[in-house]
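Lay summary. Proteins are chains of building blocks that fold into shapes, and those shapes determine what they do. In this project we predict the shape from the chain. Here is one chain we studied, written as its sequence of building blocks.
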Amino acid sequence: MEIITNRVFFPMIVIMTNSFAQILLKMGSGFIPLSAKWSLFLFLSLSFYFVSFFGYFLILKFIDISKIAPIMMVGTISVIAIYGFWMGESFNVKKLIGIVLAFISVFLISRS
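And here is the predicted shape, written in a compact code that computers can read:
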């Protein structure tokens, strides 16, 4: 129960599981629907989404939604940054500025 009440560590686990789910879903989209590989990526993605959703549900018991919701959005930002750089997606100045501003806004909201 101590891990769940940790206001830094547990949200980071939930953010990472959500990010993995999104990355796996993107990777699976490259396969023919209903093929074995597509099904595997879909299953893994759904599993990570389930863990993420359940973790978010538990976090809401201990942290105000007005603070945790913006912090959880870091998951989306981390997917853009990690997967984008990893897969060689193009990044322009506007995208990078948007990522930096999103991190700054989450930091400010979490400190309020």
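What the prediction tells us: The chain has six helices and no strands.
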